[in-house]
Write a structure and sequence with these properties.
Strand content: under 5%
Shape: globular
Structural class: mainly alpha
Number of helices: 8
CATH class of the largest domain: Mainly Alpha
Bound molecules: fe (ii) ion
Low-confidence stretches: 5-45
Helix content: 55-70%
CATH architecture of the largest domain: Up-down Bundle
Mean pLDDT: 80
């Protein structure tokens, strides 16, 4: 799950230099800036960092989204499944964050993206389990395609990370597909494999309070 608010990577903004430590004072400002302002600070930044930061922010929102869905569930088993996916989103976000920080990319505060995820979850509050899955599937398919495309733009050293991001999105698709096929006993297998078998340990990061709405 990525829940992208705006795709820097879809425009010239993807090349923005504001992510670089060379311009730390610009970072917070441009997050609320117009596209025109963003393009004015466009020079010199590697677009793949913008793409990975987009992905990171989407994972933060995704964790909030699944956490909120879990809290909305009357059925404990459904809540458990959403919580597992929230854990996967956090795991992916932590991996992205660790690499971005190591590369000198400034990481924005998570609260706006967390709140964005909570807002998305509200749209699912009235849906039944299959209705929620039905609604989710095309979104996840779209993210898989976007992440696959993103891989082709990654430098060699960042490709494994990008592939990992894509793999987790495929695990979400697999979850929804198996649930819809009444194979819920196996639906989390791919997600759990990523959580359990990935050789890189997650990096702790501060979380906001876990209130939902
Ligand atoms: Fe995700």
């Amino acid at each position: 799950m990525a829940i992208a608010p705006r795709r820097y990577s879809d425009s010239k903004i993807a090349d923005a230099s504001f992510l670089s430590q060379r311009h730390p004072c610009l970072h917070d400002a441009v997050y609320n800036a117009s596209p025109q302002v963003l393009m004015e600070v466009d020079a010199g930044m590697q677009s793949y960092f913008a793409e990975l930061l987009d992905a990171y922010r989407g994972e933060v929102a995704g964790e909030a989204f699944f956490t909120a869905l879990a809290q909305q569930m009357a059925e404990p088993e459904h809540a458990r499944k959403w919580r597992t996916l929230a854990r996967l989103e956090q795991f992916v976000a932590n991996r992205l964050r660790a690499v971005l920080e190591a590369e000198g990319v400034r990481i924005p505060a998570i609260e706006p993206d967390w709140q964005r995820g909570l807002r998305s979850a509200k749209e699912y509050a009235a849906l039944s389990w299959p209705e929620a899955l039905d609604r989710l599937l095309p979104e996840l398919d779209r993210y898989v395609r976007e992440f696959e495309a993103s891989e082709s733009r990654m430098p060699k050293n960042l490709l494994p990370l990008a592939q990992f991001v894509t793999a987790h999105e495929r695990a979400l698709v697999e979850f929804v597909t198996l649930e819809l096929a009444q194979q819920g006993a196996d639906s989390l297998a791919a997600a759990l494999r990523l959580l359990e078998e990935n050789p890189l340990a997650p990096v702790e990061r501060p979380l906001p309070k876990k209130s939902t709405m």
